[in-house]
Amino acid sequence: MPSLNIDRRRFLGAMGVLGAASLAGGAGSALTPDLAVAADAEFPVPKKGKPIEASVDPKTGDVKINDDVIVRYSSCVGCYSTCGNRIKLDRASGRVIGVGGNPYNPACAGNKLDFEAPLEDAYRSMSYANGHGAITHGTICGRGNGTLDGVSQPDRITVPLKRAGKRGEGKWKPISWDQLITEVTEGGKIFAELGEDQHVEGFKEVHDTVTPLNPEQPDLGPKSNQIAVMNTRADGRRQLNTRFATTFGTLNNFSHNSS
Ligand code: SF4
């Protein structure tokens, strides 16, 4: 395909007219000579910024994949809408370099793609090739786009944190998963290093479905009700947590919302 030296504003303007014209069912007849040149051109290669995952020939719909970029179609868990998203990763580093909408997912794509449609059609759906574009692509909201920072921002919490100062002082230190499990299950004077002498009950002590939690208030049930499970979304995690709560013997198993 011939290359075209066209600035970004002119290119987007041309694509906008092409999209509108094709929606009206008459792209070819609506083109001025200048825009016809744009229709024959390959998408411009960005001179800076993040690499694009593919380019689509706007005339033939041929898709050229950039093997340096991996694309995975997934689902956003930013909220209950559960929109589809698509994640771009740099193949060499594994780093997430972009998040966008998933054109296969009805939660975020008007006129979604059929699940059987090949991935090349997903690229075409996000281009203006062959009359496609602007009607099938998926979108995600700002929070969904924040996935990028959620994965890569350096303050993300990836290990257990234990209080390292007085309550409310906001001081924390990272601990190992083994230490977390041991202290949570065994309990003990787990803040002795801070000069605190109180005994903290571990799961082993609380796992008691016979002894009343408070003999003066038998309606509170057994001691095992001391454990409260703050649950999560119904995407598998809730079922797992509920199984734990039931097995442990606590009634205090709450939903992600207030129910
Ligand atoms: S993209 Fe936005 S609306 Fe959709 S699930 Fe994610 S956070 Fe919710």
Automatic annotation (TrEMBL):
<keyword id="KW-0500">Molybdenum</keyword>
<keyword id="KW-0408">Iron</keyword>
<keyword id="KW-0479">Metal-binding</keyword>
<dbReference type="InterPro" id="IPR006311">
    <property type="entry name" value="TAT_signal"/>
</dbReference>
<keyword id="KW-0004">4Fe-4S</keyword>
<keyword id="KW-0411">Iron-sulfur</keyword>
<feature type="domain" description="4Fe-4S Mo/W bis-MGD-type">
    <location>
        <begin position="69"/>
        <end position="155"/>
    </location>
</feature>
<keyword id="KW-0732">Signal</keyword>
<keyword id="KW-0560">Oxidoreductase</keyword>
<protein>
    <recommendedName>
        <fullName>4Fe-4S Mo/W bis-MGD-type domain-containing protein</fullName>
    </recommendedName>
</protein>
<dbReference type="InterPro" id="IPR006963">
    <property type="entry name" value="Mopterin_OxRdtase_4Fe-4S_dom"/>
</dbReference>
<dbReference type="InterPro" id="IPR050612">
    <property type="entry name" value="Prok_Mopterin_Oxidored"/>
</dbReference>
